[in-house]
From TrEMBL:
Domain of life: Bacteria
Protein name: Rha family phage regulatory protein
Species name: Baia soyae
An example molecular function term from Gene Ontology annotations: DNA binding
Ranges where the Antirepressor protein C-terminal domain occurs: 134-229
Amino acid sequence: MDNNNSQLVFIENEKVVTDSLMVAEVFEKQHFHVTRDIESLDCSSDFNASNFGCIYYKDSAGRSQKKYHLTKNGLMFLVMGYRGEKAAIMKERYIGEFDRMEQLIKSGGFHVPSTLHEALRLAADLEKDRMLLETKITEQAPKVEFHDKVLRSKELLTVTTIAKDFDMTAIQFNKLLQSYGIQYKQGGKWHLYDRYVGKGYVDYVTYEQGTTLMRWTQLGRSFLYDFLKGKEILPAC
């Protein structure tokens, strides 16, 4: 990876840009997937010419390889389809870096290192930012994994299944939800309080013997996760 990639954005031909190598690293994608995505974008030729620039560089083996420079608008057009909490974090990070760099240029505060000491200081600061960002992503990884698992599944869930996410028994979890005013027990069965009814959080299953029981949907499971997260109760998975 070339030296420009030590930071998210940089100055190229008097424009604030990033490049496809950095995008691939940040969003944890193969570089050829990113270049493929850029080349298949359904944007106008004028927009493409203004916001994407194809250049070639030497890789670590000395081979000539293709990459793209992207403006802020080009980056946003490219990554608008990248989903997930990690992607959202990196989009915000990128937007912040573009805005910061553009503001520095406008205010005359942008300074290109002119000595080895300044260059090393800048590299150290950028590395510190990168490590802080990686720490944040690592801390959020269990939450991201949980949400990904929820979205992948479409089945109705018993409270026992959801309780296991929090390392609880069904009895403990039901009492927890009751204590927070989410559900109540009547006639030996659990029901949602009115303010949560009709939101798609639960469905009802009737068995052959005529018993009808409340079951949680994936939307409901996600709701419970977000609600309990606000109470500092996180899944154990």
